[in-house]
Design brief:
The protein contains eleven helices and 15 strands. It has helices spanning about 45-50, 75-80, 95-105, 115-120, 135-145, 165-180, 195, 215-225, 240-250, 270-280, 295-300, and strands spanning about 5-15, 20-30, 35-40, 60-65, 65-70, 80-85, 155-160, 185-190, 200-205, 210-215, 230-235, 255, 260-265, 285-290, 310.
């Protein structure tokens, strides 16, 4: 098993009498991509700032590469971290290349890598243009290039695809996959749940400053008890027989306006469903079984669920 790059243990952050992060704890291994999900105000950005040492935790410990963020060696450790904030602040009068070279000097990174970094994020042809002429998506790409300075071993990305078009999003995740394959640990927060569902190794869900669920998307969906959704298309004249067979097997079939018959299917009903579908093979034109999505899992936990599942 790869070494733990991030260790967060019982972290609390208060502003006056308000706790914005309440006892968060999880870890991330080398080369792992973890999605951090939660409603606005859940504490995601605050957690990132504590991991960077920008603000201090009131309780608990945060260790990156085995070093505490408030320790004497953290300044050195921070050079191995790349950070893309949700709102990128840039200098409009500088060109893209000048901006990246400026950040390279701040981070003591090799400025000769700036051109290749800009090309990598799709800004090769715009590197000499003033940032004031950049679209929102181009500014986001420039912010991403800034986060990649110095070949970081840990990337913290806060809503990283804001303003990106589908082609740019595809390119962005291609870069992340290359970095992950090289051993970079990545934590990204996103409200675009369908976008990250197939891309993260594991998901951490926060609500009101607390960790409410952690695990793979598949394991979380299973642990939450969310059913899959069956949709069948009966042959002409077979609708009643199809509905009757499903009902007799313990399902609750419902007709849809477009001629389908739908039913929820729990994990314990999967084998029963296979037998029913086999018996109905001459009565059906087609069927689909749709698994719960990351959005389904997320909404389950935002609706007041009290369970916490650490699913592997």
């Amino acid at each position: 098993m790869n070494a733990a790059v991030v260790e967060i243990k019982g972290v609390v952050k208060r502003y006056g009498a308000t706790s914005v992060v309440r006892g968060i704890g999880f870890s991330c291994r080398e080369g792992e991509m973890v999605g951090l999900a939660g409603h606005n105000g859940a504490g995601k950005s605050t957690l990132f700032k504590m991991m960077l040492g920008i603000i201090a935790a009131d309780e608990g410990d945060i260790l990156l590469f085995g070093e505490p963020v408030r320790g004497s060696r953290f300044r050195e450790v921070r050079r191995a971290i790349g950070y893309l904030p949700e709102h990128v602040a840039l200098y409009d009068n500088l060109s893209g290349l000048e901006t990246l070279r400026f950040f390279a000097r701040l981070k003591s990174a090799d400025p000769s890598r700036c051109k290749s970094l800009l090309e990598r994020v799709g800004l090769g042809e715009a590197m000499h243009r003033a940032v004031r002429e950049y679209s929102k998506g181009m500014r986001q790409r420039l912010g991403f290039a800034q986060a990649l300075l110095g070949e970081p071993r840990l990337l913290l990305l806060d809503e990283p695809t804001n303003g990106l078009d589908p082609e740019a999003i595809h390119g962005f995740y291609n870069v992340l996959q290359q970095l992950r394959n090289d051993g970079t640990t990545i934590i990204l927060s996103s409200h675009l749940l369908a976008e990250i569902q197939s891309r993260v190794d594991r998901l951490v869900i926060m609500a009101s400053g607390k960790l409410v669920a952690e695990g793979t998307v598949t394991a979380l969906a299973t642990a939450s008890g969310l059913p899959a959704r069956l949709a069948v298309t009966p042959r002409e004249g077979a609708r009643d027989r199809v509905r009757g067979a499903l009902l007799a097997a313990g399902f609750l079939p419902q007709d849809t306006p477009d001629g389908l018959v739908q039913a929820a299917v729990t994990l314990s009903q999967r084998m029963t469903l296979l037998r029913v579908l086999a018996a109905l093979s001459d009565e059906l034109l087609e069927y689909t079984l749709t698994e719960p999505t990351l959005e389904d899992v997320f909404l389950r936990h935002q609706r007041g669920s009290t369970w916490v599942e650490r699913a592997a």
